[in-house]
Amino acid sequence: MRGARRRLCSALIVAYGLFSLYAAYTVFLRPRRPAAPRPHRDRRGPRDFTDHVALGNEEWNPWDADEKNELAASQQRYEANLKMIKYVRSHLEQTSLRVQIWGKAAIGLYLWQHVFGGHLEPADVTAQWREGSQKAGKTYFSFLTGPSVVPGYFSVEAEHVVLVLNGREPAKIAYATQWLHYAQTLMETRKIRHVAVVLLGNEQCNNAWIQPYLKRNGGFVNLLFVTYDYAFVNEEDIFQWPLGVATYRSFPVVEPSWSMLHDPRSYLCNFLGTVYKNSSRETLMEILKQDGLDKLCWIAAREQWQPQETNESFKNYQDALLQSDLTLCPVGINTECYRIYEACSYGSLPVIEDVMTPGDCGNSSMYHSAPLQLLKTMGAPFIFIKNWKELPAVLEKEKKMSLQEKIQRRKKLLEWYRNFKAWMRQKFINTLENSFLPSDKG
């Protein structure tokens, strides 16, 4: 890759030199076209006498204007070519890093489409192979995803790779380790130089299996971005990454509209989800039934989790977010859930049950505000409650809010979410560049 870049730069410099020589010849050395003999005229009219008086002793040259135009055109071509070469050279100089992202978990779509604002071709979400690219900072990113992206059957076009993997359960971990071993082989054969991993972590933060692959532990993975409140986050080589929306259920990139911001919403709140036995969600349902609060909210509870949405259920869910001022977010296996980010997408304020769930998640050496330490650190304007018994007071306050107050709150929420994604994007880029670029200079 570096040899190809050198050859391209050399070719551009040679072309630049040739253009410079040609332009100098055109402007300064090329002989002018000799004046053609003046055509004989049988009759001399008043214009001939006037021209003669105006020109005096100078020979009149009817092609003089053409020569000047040609000279000007040559100069313009020279300047345009010079500008093009300077642009290409500056572009090459600024693009110091080329990174290929292998999206082998649905969270990769949140990274590329929602955080980076990137596009994929083809647009069909069921396509076997999808790809996109963009330049950001000093880095040129390319993204590959789809079932046809398998180890050894696609072109590795960068020395720096980001692997997006799913480590939520044993079967997913087994598949993820195949990709890690493939990347390790490429490292050993010097096909690639650096590897970072974006990991959909275990909901109980049991991610011990990834530790031996980290460079700090003798492995080859330079950087790890991991979801949930992983206690090993240190802001040096391990970073917390947002869970994001449920892209595996094709949750879209939502563009805010005027009506989303300004229209009155039909419901104070919504909850569409699974109610697990002996969970706080049962408490939530009981409280909503008190004093008829469930009549003020869009409630659709089910007893069993469904991984796939039907077209009807997905539309109902989106409508509920769009038509509700608040979105209730009770804890599941983990406090962080897709619902939080999906509610932000539609300007529906998340009401979050702010309690730790069982497992190994918790405060890290860098952050002491778990759960949801990443969102809290970024100043998320949510409503956090410790017990659903606080909900009636929240809804009572909601009833008294004017539409104008709600409009301002929606604007604040949507602006925060936009800034949050922009901040995560820049942090991701800066982290890669700071980690990968110094090695290139050595």
UniProtKB/TrEMBL annotation:
Segments crossing the lipid bilayer:
none
Task: Identify the residues that the record assigns to the RXYLT1 C-terminal domain, covering every copy.
Answer: 248-437
Q: Which domain of life is it from?
A: Eukaryota
Gene Ontology BP annotations: protein O-linked glycosylation via mannose
Q: May I have one GO cellular component term?
A: Golgi apparatus
User: Nucleotide-binding as a keyword?
Assistant: no
| MF-aspect GO terms | ribitol beta-1,4-xylosyltransferase activity
Q: Give residue ranges for domain RXYLT1 N-terminal.
A: 99-242
Q: Which InterPro entries match?
A: RXYLT1-like, RXYLT1_C, RXYLT1_N
- Annotated keywords: Transferase
Q: What is this protein called?
A: RXLT1 xylosyltransferase
According to its UniProt entry, this protein's organism is: Oriolus oriolus
Which gene produces this protein? Answer: Rxylt1
